[in-house]
């Protein structure tokens, strides 16, 4: 009877792992965006804790933040008026589905009414926000970007902040800046 129960448990675990791995992109993205959930799912939290402990134990070297763009300067505008630039980051939006960029369906009629610039030659660095946002604001091309490089090098917002002439405010309406706006004013 014990052997039969062990076979059933083993078969159940194999089926569970097959299901989880076949939908791993969904689960990875879901748990990345909803971090507090892992604290509530107590039966598996110990696995995360062990992994976190091992990662922190093996990767003990302190991250040294490399300065870039310390000599950055703002080119003076001839007019007396200040310029306000609002950058909307939609790193998972598909440019080929924007009517602004020639898509046949009217997908963004309100944006067409505004005086905006659509950057049609922009590409996200990955399929997850946690990877693509820091990559987009880094100095590295997408094929050279790694999390470690991005976390150890200042980004575009830091360079603009170095000028002392640009006021930066990161306003978030979703899942934080993924480390991009750590050293600038931030509103959630």
TrEMBL record:
Q: Could you list the residue ranges forming a coiled coil in this record? A: none
Principal localization? membrane
Intracellular or extracellular location(s): Cell inner membrane
The Sulfatase N-terminal domain extends over 85-163
> Mind telling me which GO cellular component terms the entry cites?
plasma membrane
Q: Name one GO molecular function term.
A: phosphotransferase activity, phosphate group as acceptor
Name the record gives this protein: Phosphoethanolamine transferase
Q: Which organism is it from?
A: Aliarcobacter cryaerophilus
